[in-house]
Specification:
This protein has about 700 residues and is an alpha/beta fold. It has 25 helices and 24 strands. The longest helix is centred in the middle third of the chain and has 27 residues, at about 220-250. The structure holds adenosine-5'-diphosphate (ADP) and magnesium ion (MG).
Length: about 700
């Protein structure tokens, strides 16, 4: 937190009771300055605002009581424990301790007055509290009833709850003395009916007894929304800032609608869908601007993104510059390579191929074609951006299926392609549609195009879930389908994230299917295979020589075999919704009605049941994504860890994504009317200036 104007910017050691050692421990909670304590929100609250009569408490209550010790004894029934019987005249209750010291035994002398806070539960003889928080009261001392709810903070080893409460209390006092700047313009707070920053912070650390705890637990109390909103706004504005910086750089301006592009589109065996045409036009006008395009295409599996990418390439090469198309796997890159060669062979465009597994001589030839500028379009894997690859005049970079790329990687790629201050245009394509509000947060640095239409004639994939005890019936179904000339995938998903186990599971299924389907040709592909061996099998499947392809999830992304109309997925209960939807997207690409059978191991948990239910009900990737978001959260949806999604302190996208439209509006307002507030807001939540503009 950056609160230079006030004591809140001071190091924690200015607080009473904090020396260098404790200050160091507190860094584990990401606490560095006094102001940081204010943003350490309680996990929950305890209600010690009322002293309850023992006669009125009920099991399940968590409350404050007080009374006089009637009897304290150590018993050995089963487990050694100390029982302290107390009474306040209205009733009696037992305090039960399993761990206790000699000193505690003497503390609870008959007649001593104690106050206790804890969970009430039924015991062998009436109500009990097990290990309550307690205090032995002096003569005439009253139990400490508080005016506000008591916060319970996240803890780390070496810091007691009481200590944290005390430190936050000190920080709150300093906040009253010199409050942090209110950075949100009044009109925004008024419109959204949100409290000020200091009001929100004070409330959340010391809420009044009548607080709506249910709304706090849900994370949607206006005071919490106030903080989440500002945090989301800070991240959003920082991404937009990056985008604006990138937009200021120069890029090649490529003329729109060239003959080559029209010839390319006319030579296709089908007409582009309206959605494809719209996106081709959106890209087309971006490419004419002398600043780098940063565009994301979202389109469900099978919506035909590849051909849109190729049309963009056609516009680039028509302008005399180079385009690079990068895919995340060799398999997918090679598939693009085949399509691109086919599309451009009669259009006089030279293509080059680059992959990690290439023979040295081939690679040398590709590098030469790329370096001399002869190759107009270069297709490949990550190898495209390795050392030693020098483009002659790269003006367009297309990254397929890289929804797991974060902002950092996107920027790194952009910079790699830059030369002489000129940056390439960048197009990122993803088949993991994410809900609009989430996209606003995750992709604020990109413009988005959506292909929301499938090519005509596609039928929805009929999806069912079956227990794997019915595997034999499913095998019969595969046999029948293949007898009619169709093809099938049999997918064995990740097991324990281990390639070895993966491979064994796929191998076992392969053997089982080879045996039971002896009249059919069964193939196997998995991640540990050499690329050449794997490609051989894939090609055989594509050409129809293989009827049933047993595969690990390597086929998840992009593989296109229109004649395959049946997909069996083993252990589907372990997989994410979006991943299942991706896999299912491998079928339903041809004329035949396609089917997807999700096999699961019994018993099926409630969550797994509802997940599989979603896939049975809809074929719409956006709906699937929305449900995935609700069921599992954004990290899973965008790919864990490398999501590029920032770590939020207070906001939570699953819960707060609906704030994004208002965040976007506020950002525009601030940029237009309160420009000086932008930097301090970003700095407050993302750290100091060094994050800003660089990430
Ligand atoms: P994805 O968006 O999943 O990458 P692809 O680009 O692999 O989809 O396209 C899926 C299939 O649809 C391919 O076989 C492709 O040739 C075909 N296709 C793409 N566009 C059209 C269209 N407009 N009409 C008919 N088929 C199309
Ligand atoms: Mg694709």
């Amino acid at each position: 937190m950056d609160e230079k104007a006030s004591g809140l910017a001071s190091p924690l050691t200015v607080l009473r009771g904090v020396g260098p050692a404790l200050a160091k421990t507190l860094t584990r909670l990401d606490l560095h300055r006094v102001g940081d304590l204010l943003f350490l929100l309680p996990l929950r609250y305890e209600d010690r605002t009322t002293l309850h009569h023992i006669g009125s408490v009920r099991p399940g209550m968590r409350c404050l009581i007080s009374g006089e010790v009637l009897l304290a004894e150590t018993v050995y029934r089963g487990r050694r424990s100390m029982l302290v019987r107390i009474s306040d005249g209205s009733g009696q209750l037992t305090l039960r301790f399993f761990y206790f010291s000699r000193q505690q035994q003497t503390q609870f002398a008959t007649g001593a007055k104690v106050s206790c806070y804890g969970d009430v539960r039924p015991g062998p003889v009436g109500l009990e509290m097990v290990h309550p928080e307690y205090r032995v009261l002096r003569e005439n001392q009253e139990p400490a009833v508080t005016d506000t709810l008591t916060p319970v903070y996240p803890m780390t080893e070496g810091v007691q709850q009481g200590r944290l409460r005390n430190l936050v209390g000190q920080a709150l006092a300093m906040m009253k003395e010199s409050p942090p700047a209110e950075l949100l313009p009044t009109e925004i707070l008024d419109e959204l009916e949100l409290p000020t920053l200091t009001e929100a912070l004070a409330y959340l650390h010391t809420p009044p007894p009548d607080t709506d705890l249910a709304s706090i637990e849900a994370g949607r109390h206006p005071c919490q929304v106030r903080l989440s909103f500002e945090e989301l706004l800070a991240h959003y504005m920082s991404l937009r800032h990056l985008r604006n910086l990138a937009r200021k750089e120069s890029a090649m301006s490529l003329p729109g609608g060239p003959v080559l592009q029209r010839n390319f589109i006319d030579s296709l065996p089908y007409k582009l869908t309206n959605a494809q045409n719209r996106v081709v036009a959106e890209i087309g006008s971006d490419l004419q601007v002398p600043h780098p395009m940063m565009r994301l295409i979202q389109g469900d599996v099978g919506s035909g993104k590849t051909v849109v990418a190729a049309a963009a390439c056609a516009q680039a090469v028509a302008g005399g510059v180079q385009a690079a198309v990068m895919a995340p796997t060799e398999l997918l890159a090679e598939q693009h390579w085949t399509s691109f060669c086919d599309w451009f062979k009669d259009l006089g465009v030279e293509l080059a191929w680059l992959s990690g597994s290439q023979k040295k001589a081939d690679r040398q030839a590709s590098l030469e074609a790329i370096g001399s500028g002869r190759a107009g379009i270069v297709v490949g894997t990550h190898a495209l951006f390795q050392e030693g690859v020098n483009f002659s005049n790269l003006a367009l970079v297309i990254i397929d299926e890289q929804h797991r790329f974060g902002v950092h990687q996107r920027l790194a790629l952009r910079d790699k392609g830059a030369s002489g201050g000129v940056h390439p245009h960048q197009l990122v394509m993803t088949a993991t549609p994410i809900p609009r509000t989430l996209a606003m947060a995750a992709y604020a640095d990109l413009d988005t195009s959506i292909i929301d239409e499938l090519p005509p004639g596609r039928q929805a994939v009929k999806t069912i879930a079956l227990p794997d005890t019915r595997r034999n019936e499913v095998i019969e179904r595969v046999r029948d389908a293949c007898a009619e000339g169709q093809q099938a995938y049999w997918v064995c998903p990740l097991i324990d994230e281990s390639e070895v186990l993966d491979y064994q599971a796929a191998e076992a299924s392969y053997e089982m299917l080879t045996e039971s389907l002896d009249a059919l040709s069964v193939g196997l592909v998995h991640g540990r295979m050499k690329n050449t061996a794997r490609d051989k099998v894939m090609r055989a499947f594509k050409s129809g020589d293989i009827d049933v392809l047993v595969a690990t999830t390597v086929i998840e992304v992009g593989v296109d075999v229109p004649n395959a109309s049946l997909m069996i997925i083993e252990n589907s209960e372990r997989m994410g919704l979006s991943q299942l939807h991706q896999l299912r997207g491998r079928v339903g690409r041809g004329r035949d009605q396609s089917h997807c059978v999700m096999l699961y191991k019994q018993p099926l948990g409630q969550l797994a049941k509802s997940r599989l239910g979603v896939l049975r009900e809809t074929n719409d990737g956006f709906v699937v994504a929305q449900r995935d978001l609700e069921l599992r959260g954004p990290g899973e949806l965008l790919g864990t860890k490398q999501t590029g999604l920032p770590e939020y302190r207070i906001a939570n996208l699953t819960r707060d994504a609906d704030l994004m439209p208002a965040v976007q509006k506020a950002a525009e307002n601030i940029q237009k009317n309160h420009a000086t507030a932008e930097f301090p807001i970003v700095a407050r939540w993302l750290g100091n200036a060094h994050h800003y503009g660089k990430v």
